[in-house]
Amino acid sequence: MDADKIQRTAVIGSGAMGAGLVQILAQAGRHVYLVGRSDASMLRCLQRVRDGLEVQVRNGLLAEGEQGPILGRIETTTSLERAAAEVQFALEAVVEDLAVKQQIFADLDRFAPREALLATNTSGLSVGDIAERTDHPERVLGCHFFYPPAVVPLVEVGYGRKTSDEAIETAVAFWRRCGKEPVVCRKDMKGFLVSRLQSALTREAISLVANGVAGPADVDRAIRLGFGL
User: Fold this and answer.
1) Preceding omega of 113 cis (within 30 degrees of 0)
2) pLDDT on residue 170
3) Which residues pair with 32 in a beta bridge?
4) CA 12, 128, 184, 223 torsion: positive or negative?
């Protein structure tokens, strides 16, 4: 699929991360179905989107009056089937429970058009495992964002065991058009790139302190004023 033609999207999950993903897509001019478990959860999600847009207005990043058209591109539903019926790009952001995600992707694979891309925002689960119950795992991929996703530019685009190169290339191009900075994880690896790098840094920091090389305060200061800067 041509990334320029992706206009109908869906975000499954109405938590804090889901709100940020909805905001990204709506601000990028895409129609977004927000799929939540209840009207109450979706109302809270929409309020988070409003709050995020208001922060941008206050800081001069968004013109006053632009919030209305952005919010107008968001449609809420508790029906995954309805949201998936004409979607071109679906992004799941629910609890990190493999069984829950597998069911969602099995349903998406059944309801969504054949050419639609199906992405998970997971950071700790295998994309291949999530796609295990789908008939078309080649279109299932990882798109891992960082909180708050509307502010942090990075998105990790990751392969599952059977994800096609075309799906990855399309997702990379699509997120660039949405103003994000994608990097590609070429193997189906839990943690993708950033979480594994963070884990390595954490292990080394603990080792430095445990071996008396430096005290905790100096290790913390080195990270904050070096890497963190």
Assistant:
1) no
2) 98
3) 9, 74
4) positive
CA–CA separation, 100 and 226 (whole Å): 40
> Model confidence at 1, in pLDDT bands (50, 70, 90)?
confident
In this predicted model, what pLDDT tens digit does every residue of 69-127 receive, in sequence order? 999 999 999 999 999 999 999 999 999 999 999 999 999 999 999 999 999 999 899 99
Three-state DSSP class for 17? helix
167 class by beta-carbon count within 10 Å (0-12 exposed, 13-18 middle, 19+ buried): buried
Joined tokens for residue 216: 């905790």
Q: Are 178 and 28 in contact (CB under 8 A)?
A: yes
Taking residues 194-215, report their average pLDDT. 95
Residue 145's DSSP bridge partners are 155
C-alpha distances (whole Å) from 1 to each of 117, 140, 164, 168, 171 are 9, 14, 12, 11, 10
Cβ within 8 Å of residue 153, ≥6 positions away: 179, 180, 181
Tokens 């804090």 map to which residue? Answer: 16
List Cα–Cα distances, 190 to 30, 31, 41, 122, in angstroms: 29, 30, 29, 9
- Find, among 64, 89, 67, 76, the residue nearest to 177 by Cα: 89
SS3 146: coil
pLDDT digits (tens, 9 = 90+) for 150-195: 999 999 999 999 999 999 999 999 999 999 999 999 999 999 999 9
- Output the six-digit token pair for 48: 């988070």
Nearest CA-CA partner of 187 in 166, 158, 165? 158
The pLDDT score that the predictor gives to residue 227 is 82
